[in-house]
Design brief:
This protein is α/β, with parallel strands linked by helices and 427 residues long. Helices cover 37% and strands 15% of the residues. It has a domain of 207 residues: Alpha-Beta Complex (Amidase signature (AS) enzymes), CATH 3.90.1300. It has 14 helices and 15 strands. The strands form 3 sheets. An 11-stranded mixed β-sheet has the order 1-3-2-8-10-9-14-15-13-11-12, with helices on both faces. A two-stranded antiparallel sheet has the order 4-5. Helix 7 packs across helix 14 and helix 9 packs across helix 11. The longest helix has 22 residues.
């Protein structure tokens, strides 16, 4: 569990992280850059501790930041070679809050370029590999952040989640991944993918750590922690026996803690509501174009997506996608967002009908094998399209490949979310 280093030790903690990065990261490809000010910040943190200054709740805690989030003095690359010189002039507000609480940024993490995939592959860093299966992807798009925590390159990390990009790599690497309610935390200083569903949140080793970082980042805890009934969405489970067994372990923990399970719970018409064009296709082009035009200093980055594409300094696999998303008309998002609202209304109706506090399902319906984009299933989209908060918690038995069990609650019911997540983990 994360605790402030009140007796000094920040320099030792940083040395530990940097040593592991040097020894291991040529294998995992989790890190894109080391914070050049980290050593000076750790020294200042230790000096403050020994001088008995007032210390914050994250004093000396080492954080890794996904490289689509601004850290002052470091490039915000989105994994793209074309943005290698795009240095941020200030911290994203959520980063500023964490640093004000005493955290030290170790460095920036590798990711899926532009956050497009649910693997993590970039033109700057290559593929992020999973320590539990070194020939397979670590998941994405925040895979570098997850591996940084799993391998102790940092004590916790930040990622972004548009359709599962925090929760999926957390699940693949045996970690906790929190997607806050849409709009709860500031996205200023964060590269956009689809503003209607983009979020930012922590990847940590425990539920308590995720809650701590979430609150420091500005998150609110709403609702009542006395959750009693959880619906089990079997439609989302898939056929992988390892995932089925791991999720049953998780459900057993909830039942042992006194939670009543509605199993199975049907979500009528869910796959039809999730079908059709994706909001990323509709929103990325205009949002990222505006970001390039306004976010970086002159000459440090392409001024537009057209200029970026013309320069060719990105993964060739993304050329057709970039060109297609640049051509999308401005009214393309409206019918997609209407279907999001239909999905949310269906979820609200089902939960009211059954008196539910939360839904449970596996974060992914497969365990990634190889470096392709894994067919993760549609479950992670429930949170993305409803805007509700969700958390992925490890549920596999010790010694097995990690599997994430996901809990979803309505916006404003974060107390139930954290309470149930602690039950999954505690037992």
């Amino acid at each position: 569990m994360i605790e402030p280093l009140t007796q000094g030790g920040a320099q030792d903690a940083l040395s530990h992280c940097l040593s592991l990065i040097l020894q291991e990261d040529d294998r995992w490809h989790a890190m894109l850059a080391i914070n050049p000010q980290a050593e000076a910040e750790a020294e200042a943190a230790d000096r403050a501790a020994w001088e008995n200054q007032r210390l914050g709740p994250l004093h000396g805690v080492m954080l890794a930041i996904k490289d689509n989030i601004d850290v002052a003095g470091m490039a915000t690359t989105s994994g793209c070679k074309a943005l290698a010189g795009a240095v941020a002039t200030s911290d994203a507000p959520v980063v500023a809050r964490l640093r004000a609480a005493g955290a030290i940024v170790v460095g920036k993490t590798n990711l899926s370029e532009f956050s497009f995939d649910i693997r993590s592959r970039s033109s700057l860093g290559g593929d992020v590999l999973c320590p539990y299966a070194p020939d397979s992807t670590a998941g994405g798009s925040s895979g570098g952040s997850a591996v940084a925590v799993a391998r102790e390159f940092a004590m916790a990390a930040l990622g972004t989640d548009t359709g599962g990009s925090i929760r999926i790599p957390a699940a693949c690497n045996g970690l906790v991944g929190l997607r806050p309610a849409h709009g709860m935390l500031s996205l200023e200083g964060v590269a956009p993918l689809a503003p209607s569903t983009d979020t930012i949140g922590p990847i940590t080793s425990s539920v308590a750590d995720a809650r701590l970082l979430y609150e420091i980042m500005g998150g609110q805890i709403g609702g009542d922690a006395r959750a009693r009934r959880v619906g089990v969405v079997r439609q989302a489970f898939g056929q992988d026996e390892r995932i089925l067994a791991a999720c049953q372990h998780g459900l057993n923990r909830l039942a042992e803690a006194g939670i009543e399970l509605v199993d199975p719970l049907a979500l009528p018409g869910v796959e039809d509501l999730l079908a059709g064009p994706h909001i990323v296709d509709a929103e990325f082009g205009a949002a990222f174009d505006a970001y390039l035009a306004t976010h970086f200093g002159p000459g440090t980055a392409p001024a537009s997506l057209a200029e970026l594409v013309a320069g060719g300094a990105f993964l060739p696999d993304h050329r057709d996608t970039l060109i297609a998303r640049m051509a999308v008309k401005s009214d393309a998002a409206a019918p997609i967002l209407a279907r999001h609202r239909e999905l949310t209304a269906m979820l609200q109706a089902v939960m009211a009908q059954h008196g539910l506090d939360a839904l449970f399902y596996p974060t992914m319906r497969v365990i990634p094998e190889g470096l392709g984009n894994p067919p993760g299933g549609w479950a992670a989209e429930l949170a993305a399209r409803s805007g509700w908060p969700a958390i992925s918690v490890p549920v596999a038995a010790p010694g097995e490949r990690p599997v994430g069990g996901e809990l979803l609650v309505p916006a404003g019911q974060e107390a139930s979310l954290f309470a149930l997540a602690a039950m999954l983990e505690r037992r």
